[in-house]
Amino acid sequence: MVYGYLSHTIPIVHNLTATMNFQEFTKVFTKQVDRLAYERHLDFAVGICKKLFFDYQSFSERYDFGSPDVLFDAINKVEQRQLLRIDPKELKTLLQRIYEITPDSEDFGNANYAINAAATVYETVEFLLDRDINHIYNIGTYLIDTIDSKVQSDEDLSAEEIDQHPLMIEAKSYLLQETK
User: Fold this and answer.
1) Do 145 and 45 contact (CB within 8 A), yes or no?
2) Which CATH superfamily hosts domain 48-172?
3) What confidence tens digit (pLDDT) does each residue in 3-21 have?
């Protein structure tokens, strides 16, 4: 297991997160997301897209499937949203392209990380179109699900042990810090 997946966390948040169960974390995360401004929502979403992108890229290289360039271009479009004035039709086309390069779990046994990465970018583009805050909650959930899968792939753990796993604590700390 490689720790440090999310690179930086603030120790105070890290310590607080270590004492929270998943329901407590979800409650705090939701409240914090609710208070963010639109631009902060997008910055948060892009940050997670970038973190999960490499999972998609690895999957794509391993199985010779999909196109990391589509996700990369979508992330860049969202980042440059203020400069580009993107046409909603173009974003809808981009959503279709992301959908087409998202692996199906029935076709690939080990596609969870890549599916989550593509879904995160998809939800970010959808948020850019409709400003529905549920996309932001989902994006945080995709990160947690990815970490959960990585933790479970190494060990058979109970829900409590997963909550207390250093990588899960780091992920939850990251989410709380980025939504402060």
Assistant:
1) no
2) YP_001051499.1 domain like (1.20.1590.10)
3) 344 544 444 455 567 788 8
